[in-house]
C-alpha cells in the first residue's frame, strides 16, 4: 500500500510540474520569453550554444545562459531561421534577411537583405518556409508554399493550391551572391525543409489537393513532386496556362514519387520540418534517423530511410504520442545535450499557439527503448531490425501478424482514402542468427504500395513488448535479384 501511495504522489507531482515520462523518454516544459504569444516557426543553435527562435508574429529571440533577450523584431511572418555567431538568417515573406549584432550586445543592429527576389501578394497562405544551408558554402534553401485559391465571388480563399506568381509551390536555392534559383516544383505546402547528415534535402508536404496523404519528398534539382499548379512557371511544360488540365498520365510520368507516405490521421495531418539525430547516442539508438512533428496531432514521428535502385524509400513510425506532448509541432532541433527541442505554432482555427506554450523538449533517460529500429527491403520480403535482442523462444505465427498493403492514388482530389487494401499472410517469418532481427517473406511484393505491419507479439528477452508496434513502409522500388 505504501508503494502504491508513493507512486500516486509521484505521478501527481510530475503532472503538476508538467513532466510526463515513459522509461526511455520524458516530455518536459521549456521556458519561453515572458509575456509573448510564442508561436515558434524557427529553431536553431549557434556555435556557442545560444538558442535562437523566430515567431510567426515577427520576433527573433535568443536564449543564452538561461536568459531570453529579443534579438530582432518587425519581421513579416518569418517561417525559418539559421543561427550563426552574432547573427541570424530568417526567411520572411518578402525576402531572406541577415540580422547582425555588430556591437555584440545581444540585439541585432543591422537588417541586411540577402535576397528579395521572392514574389508575394496579399494572400493568407504565402509562406516562405526554410531554412537550411547547402553542401556548397553560402548556398541556402527554402520552400515557397501555394497561395490559397481565391473564389470568384470574392469570398475568402480556399485551402486548395494555387501559384499566381513565380515561384509559388517550388523549393528554391539562394546562391552566395544572393541570386534566387528555382530548385524543384510541385510542392503544395511543405512546411519546412531539412538537410540530412549527407547534405541531401527533404521536405514533408501536407495533405490536400493533388496530395492524397501527407508525404516526405527528397528534393533534387529539377524534380516535380506532384502538384501541377507549380508547372505554370516551368518554361518546358507544354500546358503552361492551365497545367492542371494536363493528361494525368503525363503528370504521373513526370512525378517523382514520395520517399514516404504518412497515413492521414494515423500518423500525420500536417507535418512540420524534418531533423536528423546527430547526437551520437545522446538521444538513444536512432543515430542518423529522421524526426518530424505534426501541427494537428501531439505526435513526433520517426523515419528510417534506405536507398533502393538509387531512390529513397523506407519506414515511418510513431515515436512519441503520449500525455504531456502538445499539438502544433512545427519545428524541431537537437541541443548539444541531446535533447529534442520542440517549437510549436498555430494559426486561425488550428489555434495551437498559446501564450507561453511555444516550446517543449524530449529528453532521453538512458534506458534503451525496445523499438523496431528499421525495416530493410529484401528480395521477396522484409528484414526487421530491433533496438534490443528479441525473445527467440516465441513462435512466429504468420497468421498472427497484422500485415496489409494499400495504395494512395494520384489525382486532383483533396486527400484520398487508402485504396486497394489487401490483408497479407506472410509466407514465412523466422528469427535471424544475430538475435535482434526477424525475416518476413511476403509474396508478390508490388511497387507504389504502402505496407503496414503490426507486431504486438514481438518481445525482448526480458518479456517486454514493443514501445510502438506499428510500422508503415513505402515501397517504390523492388530489390533487383
Summarize the structure.
By secondary structure, the protein is mainly beta. Helix content is 5%, strand content 37%. The protein contains two helices and 35 strands.
List keywords for this structure.
481 residues; mainly beta; Neuraminidase; Immunoglobulin-like; eight-stranded antiparallel sheet; five-stranded antiparallel sheet; 5% helix; disordered N terminus
Q: Can you describe this structure?
A:
This protein is mainly β and 481 residues long. The chain folds into two domains: 23-294 and 321-361, TolB, C-terminal domain (Neuraminidase), CATH 2.120.10.30; 372-475, Sandwich (Immunoglobulin-like). The protein contains two helices and 35 strands. Strand 3 and strand 4 form a beta hairpin. The longest helix has 16 residues, at 2-17. The termini are far apart. Mean pLDDT is 91; it is low at 1-18.
* Total domain count: 2
Instruction: Compute the number of strand runs.
Output: 35
Distance between the termini: 61 Å
Number of helical regions: 2
Structural class: mainly beta
What is the H level of CATH, i.e. the homologous superfamily of the largest domain?
A: TolB, C-terminal domain
**Main pleated-sheet profile:** 8 strands, antiparallel
Mean pLDDT: 91
CATH topology of the largest domain: Neuraminidase
CATH architecture of the largest domain: 6 Propeller
- Quaternary assembly: single chain
Shape designation: globular
What order do the strands of the largest sheet run in, or round the barrel if closed? 21-22-23-24-35-34-30-31
Unreliable residue runs:
1-18
Question: Strand content of the residues, in percent?
Answer: 35-45%
**Helix share of residues?**
under 10%
